[in-house]
């Protein structure tokens, strides 16, 4: 097996088995790094904790809930507004965060009184919100505060409120994935089956493992609506507390992120007999196959085929344009979680890029199995890399761009490697057919950005050439556009991608495939 020991980790030889280079003809048994194990001391891991996995990933996308952390205020700040889990109630869950702000005195004498005081204060401060989730942290778990008893007291004293308790302290697992499991099981044990919904369709689903990053859920729900399917609840993006209590009445669980939410799907199958269907909202082919599977389950495949035909005809020419220009570009696919394997093959097949590395900070062996099986030979697969290993990998692989989170992404920018935020997106949503084209546009803009070209200049040594930058102005001078279009305020001031050209599509060109190279470069700036 081609294990890979980074030079920066030679003093920690145990790290060797956590990185593997996929060789020719190797099976998954030969190419899997060790994963989902306790962090090796001294490696300076960047993993999130189990509390983070419960609150940050699963819990807080619920929109009509006061999310209360029982612990030091730093814990809740670390999980506040770090992803774009938008909602249609003016983003209440993003605007506010709540914590009991435990101090040293509470560690010594207990913090149950301050917890109850904070719960009541929060409900009174926001009288329109009568649902709450309380998250246990390491501090409150270590001193043994009985959060469940306090929640029961408040619900007895304040009729009409409902409280869910998630006991997932930071030390509850090797990484944040342990928190995913804990909150999944806690929710079905405490809340599922305690609310009866209104059923309005013959086809009813729970959309599970979907967190509405920049509106992803809205895209998918539009497809379901066009198929006549009722989405009973979304676990948990833009989801309502009571809607998620009614998950037991669905006919089918449609699962997107199997890493974070398969646990509740499996329990719903065991306890209520609801089948599970895994789908994929990213990429033309995976999404089309997913809509067909759902259509076949309900016997409405013709509705799915109509959507697929319409969307592919509309968006495939634009995707092909980007694929032609991105072909052969090297990508480090470092998103962690399910996007590791949701994207590994389809960004290669549908965008033309070469995946030279995959990694996960908190994934299980199953994530690596699917991710490695879908990427090219020679790819470097890494479990739980630290910053130094990431830098060394980029130096060795020389990627054109990386897809990752904000922390490693900002490190990449320092060595002049562009990145896309795989966790919260740059210009999402990225799901759906149009969203996949939007993703390709972001990749194209990231690699060919004039600003990125300027960043490659060494101003301490090189004379700054006068033919760099001002790309939009130079391109406009080369394109045969009318004076009205050239002088347009939108075209001069807005640089957000092909949306510019939509403003003038009748004046510039009627159809996408017929654009000139210069036109297309303007549209991508």
From TrEMBL:
UniProt keyword Oxidoreductase, yes or no: yes
Reactions mediated catalytically: N2 + 8 reduced [2Fe-2S]-[ferredoxin] + 16 ATP + 16 H2O = H2 + 8 oxidized [2Fe-2S]-[ferredoxin] + 2 NH4(+) + 16 ADP + 16 phosphate + 6 H(+)
Keywords: ATP-binding, Iron, Iron-sulfur, Metal-binding, Nitrogen fixation, Nucleotide-binding, Oxidoreductase
Pfam families the UniProt entry points to: Oxidored_nitro
EC nos: 1.18.6.1
Family: Belongs to the NifD/NifK/NifE/NifN family.
Cofactor: [8Fe-7S] cluster
Name recorded for this polypeptide: Nitrogenase protein alpha chain
Entry keyword annotation includes Nucleus: no
Gene3D superfamilies, sorted: Nitrogenase molybdenum iron protein domain
Domain annotation Nitrogenase/oxidoreductase component: ranges: 49-447
PROSITE patterns named in the record: NITROGENASE_1_1, NITROGENASE_1_2
Domain of life, source organism: Bacteria
GO molecular function: ATP binding; iron-sulfur cluster binding; metal ion binding; nitrogenase activity
Organism taxonomic ancestry: Bacteria, Bacillati, Bacillota, Clostridia, Eubacteriales
């Amino acid at each position: 097996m081609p294990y890979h020991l980074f030079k920066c980790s030679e003093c920690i030889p145990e790290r060797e088995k956590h990185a593997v280079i996929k060789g020719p003809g190797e099976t998954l048994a030969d190419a899997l790094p060790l994963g989902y194990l306790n962090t090796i001391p001294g490696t300076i891991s960047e993993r999130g904790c189990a509390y983070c996995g419960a609150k940050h990933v699963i819990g807080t996308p619920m929109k009509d809930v006061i999310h209360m952390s029982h612990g030091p205020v730093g814990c809740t700040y670390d999980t506040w507004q770090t992803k774009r889990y938008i909602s249609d109630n003016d983003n209440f869950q993003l605007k506010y965060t709540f914590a009991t702000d435990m101090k040293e005195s509470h560690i010594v004498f207990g913090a149950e009184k301050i917890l109850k005081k904070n719960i009541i204060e929060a409900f009174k401060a926001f009288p329109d919100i009568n649902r709450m989730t309380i998250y246990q942290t390491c501090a409150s778990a270590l001193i043994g505060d009985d959060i469940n008893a306090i929640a029961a007291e408040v619900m007895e004293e304040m009729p009409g409120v409902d409280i869910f308790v998630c006991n997932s302290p930071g030390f509850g697992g090797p990484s944040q994935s342990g928190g995913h499991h804990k909150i999944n099981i806690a929710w079905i044990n405490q809340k599922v089956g305690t609310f009866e919904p209104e059923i309005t369709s013959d086809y009813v689903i729970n959309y599970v493992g979907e967190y509405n990053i920049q509106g992803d859920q809205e895209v998918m729900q539009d497809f379901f609506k066009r198929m006549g399917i009722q989405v009973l609840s979304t676990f948990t993006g833009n989801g309502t507390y009571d809607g998620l209590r009614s998950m037991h009445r669905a006919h089918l669980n449609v699962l997107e992120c199997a890493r974070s939410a398969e646990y509740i799907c499996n329990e719903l199958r065991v306890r209520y007999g609801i089948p599970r269907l895994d789908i994929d909202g990213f990429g033309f082919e995976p999404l089309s196959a997913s809509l067909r599977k759902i259509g076949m389950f309900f016997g409405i495949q013709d509705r799915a085929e109509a959507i697929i035909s319409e969307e592919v005809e509309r968006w495939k020419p634009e995707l092909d344009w980007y694929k032609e220009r991105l072909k052969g570009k090297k990508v480090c696919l470092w998103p962690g979680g399910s996007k590791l394997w949701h994207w590994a093959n389809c960004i290669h097949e549908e965008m033309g890029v070469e995946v030279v590395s995959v990694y996960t900070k908190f994934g299980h062996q199953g994530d690596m199995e699917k991710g490695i099986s879908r990427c090219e030979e020679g790819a470097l697969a890494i479990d739980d890399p630290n910053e130094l290993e990431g830098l060394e990998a980029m130096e060795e692989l020389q990627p054109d761009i990386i897809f990752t989170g904000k922390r490693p992404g900002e490190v990449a920018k320092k060595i002049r490697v562009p990145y896309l935020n795989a966790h919260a997106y740059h210009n999402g949503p990225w799901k759906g057919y149009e969203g996949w084209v939007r993703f390709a546009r972001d990749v194209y803009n990231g690699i060919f950005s004039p600003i990125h070209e300027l960043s490659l200049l060494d101003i301490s040594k090189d004379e700054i050439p006068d033919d760099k930058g001002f790309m939009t102005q130079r391109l406009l001078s080369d394109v045969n556009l009318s004076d009205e279009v050239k002088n347009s305020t939108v075209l001069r001031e807005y640089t957000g991608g092909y949306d510019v050209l939509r403003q003038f599509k009748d004046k510039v060109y009627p159809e996408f495939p017929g654009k000139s190279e210069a036109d297309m470069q303007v549209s991508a700036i």
